[in-house]
Amino acid sequence: MSEHTMRVDLLTREYPPNIYGGAGVHVDELSRVLRSLIDVRVHAFDGPREPGTVPEGVTGYSDLPELADANAAIRTLGVDLAMTIGTEGTDLVHSHTWYANMAGHFSKLIHGVPHVISAHSLEPLRPWKAEQLGGGYRVSSWAEKTAYEAADGIVAVSNGMRDDILRSYPAIDPARVEVIHNGIDLAGWVAPEKDDPERLATLAKWGIDESRPMVVFVGRITRQKGLPYYLRAAEQLPKDVQLVLCAGAPDTPQIMKEVSDLVKGLASERDGVIWIEEMLPRKELVAIESAATTFVTPSVYEPLGIVNLEAMAVGIPVVGTATGGIPDVIVHGETGYLVPIEQLQDGTGTPVDREKFESDLAGALNAMVSDPDRAREMGVASRRRVEEHFSWDAIGERTVEFYAKVLGR
Q1: Per the omega criterion (within 30 degrees of 0), is the bond before 51 cis?
Q2: Which band of pLDDT confidence, cut at 50, 70 and 90, is reported for residue 182?
Q3: pTM of the model
Q4: Which has the closest alpha carbon to 406: 139, 124, 155?
Q5: Distances (CA, A) of 180 to 135, 289, 349, 379
Q6: Which tens digits make up the pLDDT trace of 20-74?
Q7: For residue 50, what is the DSSP state?
Q8: What is the three-state SS of 55-110?
Q9: Gap between the terminal Cα atoms of the chain
Q10: How far apart are CA 301 and CA 103, in angstroms?
Q11: Is 272 left (phi over 0), alpha (psi -120 to 50) or beta?
């Protein structure tokens, strides 16, 4: 590798301007820090990008017109085939999510290069997708399993995720799975000054009263995010606590109805229940979080939880479920509280004792809102922890070291 700059091709479903979740943010930030270290090319879905809107070396692929009427999973494989042609000449391919895993696997086979996968979530741990996608879920599950079992290196974003990978795919050699945490753009998540006019305008726009204690939830309305557990736990919080939900993009009409009914029930018994369904620009989200006493992550499945890092960077503590990668982020009693959970091992992550989980969650939130000084101290410690352990520069360097290790095999 000393003769030329290492070339790595990142393969991804999401890339600006089309970002829907944590994996897209991850690839955007990772590619940014890697560009100063190696030669990086990005291959993404959603068609070619407007010239000048993305860095050089980014190629966008459209669905194959011949597959326009096919199942979404088959359309995905069509894009993967096109991407495989584009990766010719690379030293290593690095794929993100099952959508792009087969592009990585095909590139490995066709071009004879190593394939590294970043695990952002795992299909076997999302069995509810079967009811949504049927045959498409069987295809995505096959694609993921095939790519993972043949991969030369796998990046797990947390220790919990590493355990999940080895449990879901026991054929994988544990030596190939490395923990490299997700990072965060520290500059983009900084609490503005209290009297910043834009901040005050955002709080006024959403009817947020800063003089009251406040719990913020940010996440999509999916089974894994555990929103219904939190909404039931919230019934046990003092009436002066504001509950701000930045929650949209429901997975199914059923979970949307469940969440709507619970929110209505809460709002009938207390004021200060604020539900924001639209995707907010980062500045507005930061303004809202900066007014919070605590952030809450009631997830039953969370590989790492970038939203936790974002909240901590803004300087607020997090109450989160002790599952997946959340314990890698929250230091219990120092940057927030971990809520214990015993879960079914059927892939759904459902709490064995729902009422106990909800009551423990309510207890941790009550501890936060009843001691605002302690919560503020934890918020300061949260920002410090993110700066020390989750900066993208450190993660970029660790990732390049991992590439070199895989190429050295």
Answers
A1: no
A2: confident
A3: 0.77
A4: 155
A5: 33, 27, 23, 24
A6: 877 898 899 999 999 999 999 999 999 999 999 999 999 999 999 999 999 999 9
A7: P
A8: CCCEEECCCCHHHCCCCHHHHHHHHHHHHHHHCCCCCEEEEEHHHHHHHHHHHHHH
A9: 13
A10: 26
A11: left
